Every structure is written in C-alpha cells, then in structure tokens.
C-alpha cells in the first residue's frame, strides 16, 4: 500500500534493494506491490489496487487472494512484510505453509500513524497498537530502527538498515543559498506546522521552502497567510531524481526535519551526507547517526526549533564529516549485513 510514486522511506529502501540485487546477483529478490494493472515481470509483481492518495500514489490492495497465490508461485525462503494492513496474519500463515520465515518490517509507529488521521490521535494510537500486536503475532522476527516493544509487544530481532544512494555525497561545487528547506511529505505528523510557527518567530527573516507534496499544503498556505509570512513561504514540487535532490539539499542554507515521531528520518541523513547543515527533533534516530552535522530541538519547542535553525544557518559546512557519513551508510554495505541476517534466520 505504501509503495507509491511519491512515497518516502519504504520506496527508497525497496528501490535500493532492487538496485543492489541487480548489481550483485547475490540473492533472489521479489517485490510485491499494489498497482493499476496486474503484472509479473522478473522480480516485480504488481497486483491490482485502488489509488487512495493522489499526493503520494498510495494504493489500497484489492484483497489478498492474488497475494497468497503469488507467494505460492514464488516459494521464497524469507518473506518481509512491509505493510501491516495487507493481510499480515494470512501472509504469515501462507509463508509458514511453504517453510518460509517471516519478518515484519516496522517503518512507522502507532503515534506517527495516529497523527496522520483526522481527529483525536490519543484515541487512535491505542487502537493501532492493538492492531500491530495482532498483525505481527505470527511472524518469526521483527526488523526495526527503533524499539518496537510498545507497539508490537516484542523487541526487534534484526535492525532495519537505512542507507544512502550514491548521489548523496558532499556537493562543494553547489553554491549554498539562503533558504531554510523542508523536503518530504506535507502532512501534519511531519511537523510542518511547527516549522511554519518557527518561521514566524521574532527575528526569523529567512525564506522557508517546502519541497514536496501532501494533504496539508492548502492548510499550510492558509496558515502562512494568517501568520503574515506568506511572502517568505514557497512550495515546490516533489523531486524524484536523487542527483537533483542532492543539489537541493546542498543548495539550502539548512535542511529541517521537524517531525517529532520519525521512526528514522532518512531526509536528515541524505541532507547531511550532501553537505547540508540539518535540523531535527531530538527524538529522530537519524539525528544520532548524523552527529554534529545536526542541530536538535525538543518536541513541541517552537522557540527551540527556531534557535536550532539559527545555529544551523550560521554554521559552516563540514564536507569531510559529510563524506565519512556517506561512506558509513552506503547501501551495499548495509544490504550485505542484512543478507547475512536473513541467511541466519532461514537456517
């Protein structure tokens, strides 16, 4: 469901693994996703689905029968479930019927998902937690960046390794501009309204540039007008080409990832590796990965966010640290470690 034309971390991870498989041939790899028309070509299997989010291309799968049939045709050794809503218990049962191991891959959290639903997120989060615990009760292992114990009732057996495309390298030839930049989905749970409030604090005179699309764009434009900063807020289309995106990062005065409930925060890692100064909430796991290249703030602290942006804008790029980060989080190294974990699980 969450593998859309403009989706974020899940698509980035899966596309990187597809490229790694093509490069190495070290393992057989299949990806099953919903799409417009059913097709099975090589390792790509598209099953019918209805588009539910035009902004990011999310599709709702039309049932699970074709999914089970495809799994039986492929007969994998390990099945990784990236979608907790596409019949996970049935998928686990089908996998077990062919002696395959199952791994639930936790890309989100109940808090993050609840904040994306209109209404009282405090009511939705416990319900989502119950769903996740039931959905993943039959899997053999959990893969996650953060500890999923609160959501799933279990700890992670395998770390979810998120890495960097080769495009995200220091770009010293790209002039550093003056804009404060947000890259990603324009949704409330991504902290975009908190960022807008920071742009309206006294002393903030910089231009805020949103690069992406999402359901909150109209509300952001209206809020910027009410705050009296509409002339300093710009919106640009989602950038699909990674080399072009690396230049967007490198050309920013700083890149801000304001979400409080990020389960990793790949944007922060990509931006820092591209040579940009970054700002993120101190709850984002990628903040620890980025280290001194990131300036952090506490959840809900608008003044602290504005202050962190000020420090990031004033700080000089550290291209040596950015280059080291890019090497440390290169996809080939991370997928080699993941493959070793899958082989151990499969026995």
TrEMBL record:
InterPro entries, A to Z: Glyco_trans_4-like_N, Glycosyltransferase_grp1
For this protein, the Enzyme Commission number is 2.4.1.-
Which key words tag this protein in UniProt? Glycosyltransferase, Transferase
Gene3D superfamilies given in the database record:
Glycogen Phosphorylase B (3.40.50.2000)
The Gene Ontology biological process annotation of the record reads: carbohydrate derivative biosynthetic process
Q: Which SUPFAM superfamilies match?
A: UDP-Glycosyltransferase/glycogen phosphorylase (SSF53756)
Give the superkingdom in one word. Bacteria
- A GO molecular-function annotation: glycosyltransferase activity
Give residue ranges for domain Glycosyltransferase subfamily 4-like N-terminal. Answer: 8-151
Pfam families in the record: Glyco_trans_1_4, Glyco_transf_4
UniProt enzyme class: transferase
Q: Which PANTHER family match?
A: SULFOQUINOVOSYL TRANSFERASE SQD2
What's the name of the protein? GDP-mannose-dependent alpha-(1-6)-phosphatidylinositol dimannoside mannosyltransferase
């Amino acid at each position: 469901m969450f593998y859309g034309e403009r989706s974020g971390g899940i698509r980035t991870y899966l596309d990187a693994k597809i490229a790694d498989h093509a490069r190495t041939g070290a393992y057989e790899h299949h990806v099953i996703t919903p799409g417009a028309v059913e097709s099975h070509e090589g390792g790509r299997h598209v099953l019918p689905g209805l588009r539910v989010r035009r902004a990011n291309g999310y599709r709702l799968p039309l049932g699970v029968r074709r999914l089970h049939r495809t799994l039986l045709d492929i007969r994998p050794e390990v099945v990784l479930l990236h979608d907790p809503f596409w019949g996970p218990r049935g998928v686990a049962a089908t996998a077990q019927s062919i002696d395959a191991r199952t791994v639930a891959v936790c890309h989100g959290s109940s808090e993050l998902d609840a904040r994306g639903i209109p209404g009282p997120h405090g009511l939705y989060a416990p319900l989502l937690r119950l769903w996740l615990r039931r959905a993943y009760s039959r899997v053999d292992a959990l893969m996650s960046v953060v500890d999923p114990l609160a959501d799933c009732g279990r700890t992670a057996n395998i770390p979810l390794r998120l890495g960097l495309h080769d495009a995200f390298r220091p770009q010293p030839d790209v002039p550093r501009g003056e804009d404060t930049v947000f890259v990603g989905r324009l949704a409330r749970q991504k902290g975009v309204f908190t960022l807008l409030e920071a742009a309206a604090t006294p002393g903030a005179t910089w231009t805020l540039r949103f690069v992406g699309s999402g359901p909150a764009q109209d509300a952001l434009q209206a809020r910027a007008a009410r705050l009296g900063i509409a002339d300093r807020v710009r919106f640009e289309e989602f950038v699909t080409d990674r080399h072009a995106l690396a230049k967007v990062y490198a050309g920013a005065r700083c890149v801000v990832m304001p979400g409080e409930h990020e389960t990793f925060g790949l944007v922060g890692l990509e931006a820092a590796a591209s040579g940009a100064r970054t700002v993120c909430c101190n709850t984002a796991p990628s903040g620890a990965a980025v280290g001194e290249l990131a300036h952090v703030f506490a959840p809900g602290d608008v003044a602290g966010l504005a202050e962190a942006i000020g420090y990031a804008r004033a700080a000089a790029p550290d291209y040596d640290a950015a280059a080291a980060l890019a090497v440390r989080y290169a996809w080939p190294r991370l997928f080699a470690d993941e493959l070793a974990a899958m082989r151990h699980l499969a026995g």
